[in-house]
Amino acid sequence: MKSVYRILRLLLVLAICIAVASPLVLFVGLSLPGVQGRLAHRCEQELSRLLDCRVTVGDLGIVPFNRAVLRNVTVETAPGDMALTVR
Question: What is the pTM of this model?
Answer without folding.
Answer: 0.72
